[in-house]
Amino acid sequence: MTINKLILGDCLEVLKTINSESIDLIYIDPPFFSNKNYEVIWGDKGEVRSFQDRWAGGIEHYVAWLKERIIEMHRILKPTGSIFVHCDWHANAYIRVYILDKIFGLNNFRNELIWGYKRPSAPKQKQLSRLHDTIFWYSKSDIWIFNGDDIRIPYADSSIARAGYVANASKMTDGGNVELKEGGKLPEDWWDIPMLKGNSKEWIGYPTQKPEALLERIIKMASNEGDTVLDCFLGGGTTVAVADRLNRNWIGIDQSPQAIKVTEFRLNKQQSLFSKPFTVQLHKYDYDTLRYKDAFEFETWIINQFGGLVNTKQRNDLGLDGRTKDNQPIQVKRSENVGRNVIDNFHSAVMRYDKALYEKNKAEGNPVGFIIAFSFGKGAIQEVARLKVEENVLIKLVTVEEIVPIAKKPSLKVEITDWGISKGLREIAFEAIGESETGVQFYAWQFDYQDNFIPKILFDKQGKQTYKFKPGEHKIAVKVVDNEGLENLEIIKLKINGGVKRN
After folding, report:
1. Which of 128, 237, 326, 489 registers the highest number of CB atoms within 10 A of its CB?
2. Fold assignment, 5-147+188-281
3. Other beta carbons less than 10 A from residue 230's beta carbon
4. Bridge partner residues of 333 (DSSP)
């Protein structure tokens, strides 16, 4: 399993592909047992299907649905790893007793963390407000990572601070003075971290979005730099965004294409020159994006998707780009209608690459090599057939669409309306109009576009925005995302002086 990867899919199936004891920390915020329509946040087919699946029965069905997934999480955790399961009053007792205690064991229960928050109460309620969530922390064994010094918090006042510092003193100095530890005290098992509001800088418009401060404390406490963090109910992407910022590796999984795409845009927004690259795995891929992307990048990606190993030397490779796990050569052509000359050259290269292996595969009727391309011409197909019949040489032609499903990206146009000058700034209204065979889900906007799409607005369901501009030239970029997670980008160039000119 490649790290630093966003994966679209049912987490149960994806978890089964991850190696045992390969993950250092798991945080999950699975759907609560509330059976409320507000659980369907993105509204795409993947999320609706997941909602219906876990609500096919009552609490027993919900527990069984979650339990089979946590069994897989236990398998992939390292012996020193931990899991944090975020839940609320609807099912927290069931999750602890029937799932976590049984899978991880009572001896590996570390803490029941209470995340308290504030929000307005109902005016005529007849019970106390429920203003906390529960986060269960279990380790896999009796040896686990705990970085207490990384999560210390300031003391409330100076007298408590000094008492606390003395209790945590690292050594005594001459004259009996205490050398105080910096950083304050360890948090208790109740955490007063404010919920996000709409005016928060990190707010992306995801209704159940968790504060970065909450995930930062968990990730710092229970993992080290370079460790791998997994979140398989990705939602708004807070876990992987924080893990990436804290120099952890990560894997994010969600059944909603919109969750994957919003998280991708969120990561792009915080990327710097020193950030590690990441990949996105969707159900379907846009033809134009694959066909015209960087050739070497495409070779690497498609060989990995094929299950092969990439040739990293790029010199004296006889034009071969990789090999299968059985060492059969692979060549990638990022083109359509591949001709016979490619077959001739590949056949010659394969014989020179490993003559003994070539003869062995030939004698056993196995492919001597694979050529991957978008399509193959009549000449190439005929030559492959001739080699098989006349020389007993089997060369396999594989189209990109046989490896990954390909679809058509959504269309997009943008209309603008000049609302005139307000306080010296030109106010412009934008309306993005996207169309897709699978349905448009949302738009993302950047009003200072340069070369990379780093959106200011991540999640716009309506496609309508208003922005104020100073005189000068401006580039505005908008992306549309459809139900498959496919996207299209439109760039608007505006020149604002006395009026508005669109290039």
Report:
1. 237
2. Rossmann fold (3.40.50)
3. 30
4. 373
pLDDT digits (tens, 9 = 90+) for 439-486: 999 999 999 999 889 999 998 999 999 999 999 999 999 999 998 899
For residue 413, the cross-strand partners are: 433
Cβ-contact 184, 154 below 8 angstroms: yes
Q: What CATH number matches the domain at 409-502, 2.60.40.10, 3.40.50.800, 3.30.110.70, 3.40.50.720?
A: 2.60.40.10
The rounded distance, in Å, linking the Cα atoms of 94 and 102 is 11
| Residue 418, both tokens | 């000049």
For the chain, report the end-to-end CA distance as a whole number of angstroms. Answer: 45
Structure tokens at 387: 């080699």
Q: 429: helix, coil or strand?
A: strand
Alpha-carbon span 342 to 27, nearest angstrom: 49
Q: Residue 503 CB: number of other CB atoms within 10 A?
A: 9
Give me the sheet containing 279-281, strands edge to edge: 190-192, 109-116, 132-139, 77-87, 23-28, 228-231, 249-254, 5-8, 279-281
Per DSSP, the three-state class of 103 is helix
Evaluate whether 118 touches 130 at the Cβ level (below 8 Å). Answer: no
Q: What is the pTM of this model?
A: 0.77
DSSP-derived secondary structure letter, 410 = P
Are the CB atoms for 439 and 482 separated by under 8 Å?
Answer: yes
